[in-house]
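> forwarded from #structure-qc
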């Protein structure tokens, strides 16, 4: 009887010790980002950075009007910094113009959310938004440092 209790007690201890280890290996949450070409856009190449790391590149053109990617959150993180960088070519007054766009912000508990990459101010500002929950993404106006072209 004592050996059965000892075995049961040992099993419980092992189970309790194993549970935190399993919790640490659980997959992090994910969210999606969709980039869609505006009617006046000819082409777009944009990059999405999370906490300074490149996580997605979008290539849009006349034959591809939108792209969606799933982004994993860094393990143990609920709030992350993001930056969007890109080059957008548009037709304006019958002429082609290429705009370099970038901005940065922060995502608050984005797991499970669907975010859109949107441009504003005549394609000079570029940021993420969740139209169903505007508290998920905050946007800081101005250029993102991670988007700066390296100087030689």
């Amino acid at each position: 009887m004592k050996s059965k209790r000892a075995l049961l007690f040992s099993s419980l201890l092992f189970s309790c010790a194993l549970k935190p280890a399993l919790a640490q290996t659980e997959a992090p949450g994910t969210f999606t980002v969709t980039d869609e070409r505006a009617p006046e856009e000819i082409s777009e190449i944009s990059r999405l950075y999370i906490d300074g790391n490149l996580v997605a590149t979008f290539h849009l053109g006349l034959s591809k009007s939108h792209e969606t990617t799933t982004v994993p959150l860094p393990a143990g993180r609920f709030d992350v910094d993001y930056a969007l960088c890109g080059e957008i070519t548009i037709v304006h007054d019958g002429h082609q113009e290429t705009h370099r766009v970038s901005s940065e912000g922060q995502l608050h508990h984005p797991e499970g959310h669907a975010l859109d990459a949107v441009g504003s101010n005549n394609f000079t500002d570029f940021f993420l938004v969740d139209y169903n929950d505007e508290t998920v993404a905050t946007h800081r106006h101005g250029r993102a440092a991670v988007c700066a072209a390296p100087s030689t």
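QC bot note: The chain has a mean pLDDT of 82. Helices lie at 2-24.
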